[in-house]
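INTERNAL AUDIT FORM
Audit reference: QA-55
Scope: verify that the stored structure record matches its stored sequence.
Auditor: D.O.
Record contents follow.
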Amino acid sequence: MTDAKRPRIPRGLRPDGAALWSYGFRPFFLGGAVWAVVAMVLWIAALIHGLPLGGDYGAPLWHAHEMVFGFAPAVLAGFLLTAIPNWTGSLPVSGRALIGLFSVWAAGRVAMAAAALTGTWVAALIDAAFLPLLLAIAAREIVAGRKWNDLKVLGGVAAIMAGNLGFHAAALLGGDPALWMRAAVAGYVMLVLIIGGRIIPSFTRNWLNRQGAKAMPVPHDRFDMGVIIASALALGTWTVAPESSPAALGCALAAGLNAARLARWRGLATRPEPLLWVLHLSYGFVPLGFLAVTAAALGTVQAASALHVLTVGVIGTMMLAVMTRATRGHTGRDLTASRVTTLSYLCLFAAALARPLADLTGSAGLMEAAGLLWILSFGLFVAEHGAMLVLQRRQAGRLQAARA
């Protein structure tokens, strides 16, 4: 076979290299899901048995950090390192570069958990390295591919990175870590609005076409842009002044606009396929989250309850939905959900409802139930999809050669 006809191997990956390091979604989806389980087990142990976590950060701040800046960035990295090559037509980051990036993320998890041994400053420096690296890699790929329209995705990544840096600074120097937590959560929600608004109607349209349906989701238009802008303004106001009247008004408006946007995507027609309706239901937590933030700004619910609607409901469920679909699609499997996958969705939706209810009622039982449901959901993902992520190199290789 001549060099001209030889299939292109992703950069940094030898033809006999491990499948795990051939594409970003593989190590980061698996690592993120495993950490979602481990971090929640450690948090429950801290609540029940007083397990010391996070050193001077304290167990509650450690838990909040590891959900927003530990688990979630791993899934985000897996998505971006897989989606950007599709957007730009470039080869994926793989091999040594991918191993190095994943190692930086993993080192942050160990350092934060062992902050009592390493010291909080050392833990913060190690943890803070990952998101700037991810942002730099994503920016390099998008700019090299001249996909200028996709640069807006980097805004959300930058907000999450700034949130992590601010979180550490506030925790170590004296300040309000919650402000920076809200900034990062706002960044994730904006990514859901931007990327979810792209993939949900597109995937739905493709599926409806195969079913022979005539009515299709409304294409992206000025209304969608208006929703995104109004939501960004509402989230920005909530970030800096969560209990203000402008935050309440802006988030109430954003709730209505996002509900109307979701209604345009024909979600009810996807009922036969869980791999699709989970995306619509996950986006449904966006208007619900804005309503919860509105209620918190008016003083009718606790701020923690509203935050958990956004973190578990919007971020957690959307990430699981994307992880399952991308894993199946990129390992050559049919895009249909198994019973195990569907059960993992239902467990996480139940956790997304139980967690804010635990804040509202003060029920320790509901809080523990929410944690156990979270563990079960991501545990099921690992049990079903772990082997796909680690072993299925042959199918992924064909897909990569076809895209090259």
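Auditor finding: record pair retrieved intact. The two ends are 17 Å apart (CA to CA).
Action required: none
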